[in-house]
Design brief:
Layout lengths: L26 H7 L4 H24 L14 H8 L7 E4 L4 H8 L2 H8 L17 E2 L2 E3 L6 H14 L6 E6 L6 H13 L3 E7 L2 E2 L2 E2 L8 H6 L4 E6 L3 H18 L3 E6 L15 H7 L4 H9 L1 H24 L16
Parallel strand pairs: 1-3, 1-4, 4-5, 5-9, 8-9
Antiparallel strand pairs: 2-3, 6-7
Helix pairs in contact: 2-3, 2-4, 2-11, 2-12, 3-4, 3-9, 5-12, 6-7
This protein binds thiamine diphosphate and magnesium ion.
Length: 339
């Protein structure tokens, strides 16, 4: 491995720096090592993501954070359903709505909090912000659709290197309007790239409802390129976890692409405050909020313990991130150029 970049240098606030070794983070092993019952583990992860983003929104409102951010509130079950099946070194390619994917994958919310605060110990040295993450084998980019060919190429690279690793790319329903997605599906199928295309259909692309953005069937788009494709309508984390286990396993075993659509809903604004959706529609969808859905199965004591643990953690990481230094000009060396 190359020497650790500056942003991974020891941080003074008590959190371990993350290694730049793509194999350093192993979501599946971490999940399996947690002795709690499945529902409790999933609830703990989703609660952490939810509280992390609620904290972000309040920091934006108080003027401590600036720029933009797209929250994942309501979609947390997708991330925990898919990502807990991934091994160390599997590539994850996320999009503008990446916090839930990153926090679930890494279990390192402090790195993203520092990043959003623009600090040198943020996941990309405080220069990527909310949407642009590069950490081990996790990547995100806000250019809709542009992530599909990148993920396909990375999956193909793993195949050529015979690593038995796969790539997962998360796309929105609106992103199915980008032509480059179809070039990616074509090449992934033709070349047998082990890439799982996950479409998170939250029914809206910013201010456009899905009925006004897409003709035909989402799932048929994957099938048209000769790959297996399926769909699930659920915000139940346990159901999604059960659904994606065999799919991830099959992509790895067959070394072939797969296209899977999750029909879900976003319960927050598109970004920080913009929301053109009918209020009644959003209110009705709150019945499908994945957190209360799972909480009911846990029992009060276990659920409350998860919530307390997440709250303490968010408080600690926020305080830590505030103490972190801002990046220096020297920190630019190696980030955008070699010298
Ligand atoms: C190429 C490109 N065009 C436009 C945008 C602006 N933009 C950001 S998010 C978004 C809507 C995306 O909708 P969808 O794919 O359904 O994802 P969601 O926001 O619902 O998660 C748009 C138009 C962008 N980021 N990239
Ligand atoms: Mg959408």
């Amino acid at each position: 491995m190359s020497a650790s970049p500056a942003y991974l240098a020891a941080d003074p606030g008590g959190f371990e720096p993350v290694s730049d070794d793509p194999a350093a983070i192993d979501p599946r092993a971490r999940f399996e090592a947690d002795p709690r019952p499945l529902a409790e583990k999933l609830y703990a992860q989703m609660t952490l993501v939810r509280q992390f983003e609620e904290k972000l929104l309040s920091l934006f409102a108080e003027g401590e954070l600036f720029g933009t951010t797209h929250c994942y509130i309501g979609q947390e079950a997708d991330a925990v359903g898919v990502i807990n099946h991934l091994e160390a070194g599997d590539v994850v390619f996320s999009n503008h709505r990446c916090h839930g994917h990153f926090v679930t994958w890494s279990d390192r919310p402090e790195l993203l909090m520092a990043e959003l605060m623009g600090r040198a110990t943020g996941v990309v040295g405080g220069r990527g912000g909310s949407q642009h993450i590069c950490c081990g084998s996790f990547f995100s980019n806000g250019v809709q659709g542009g992530i599909a060919p990148a993920a396909t190429g990375m999956a193909l690279a793993e195949k050529i290197k015979k690593t038995n690793k796969i790539a997962v790319v998360f796309l929105g329903d609106g992103t199915l309007g980008e032509g480059v997605v179809y070039e990616s599906l074509n090449m992934a199928s033709l070349w047998g790239a082990p890439v799982l295309f996950v479409v998170e259909d939250n029914r809206w692309a910013q201010s456009t409802p899905v009925e006004r953005e897409l003709a035909g069937s989402m799932v048929a788009r994957g099938r048209a390129f000769g790959m297996d494709a399926g769909e699930i309508e659920s915000t139940d984390a346990e159901a999604l976890f059960a659904h994606f286990g065999p799919i991830v396993e099959k992509v790895r075993r067959q070394c072939r692409p797969h296209f899977e659509v999750i029909h879900t809903y976003r319960l927050c604004h598109h970004s920080k405050s913009d929301d053109q959706r009918p209020v009644e529609e959003v209110e009705a969808r709150k019945a499908g909020d994945p957190l209360p859905l799972l909480r009911g199965r846990l029992g009060e004591a276990a659920a409350a313990a998860c919530e307390r643990e997440a709250a303490a953690r968010i408080e600690a990481i926020t305080a830590w991130a505030r103490r972190q230094p801002f990046p220096s000009a020297e920190g630019l060396v190696g980030l955008f150029s070699k010298s």
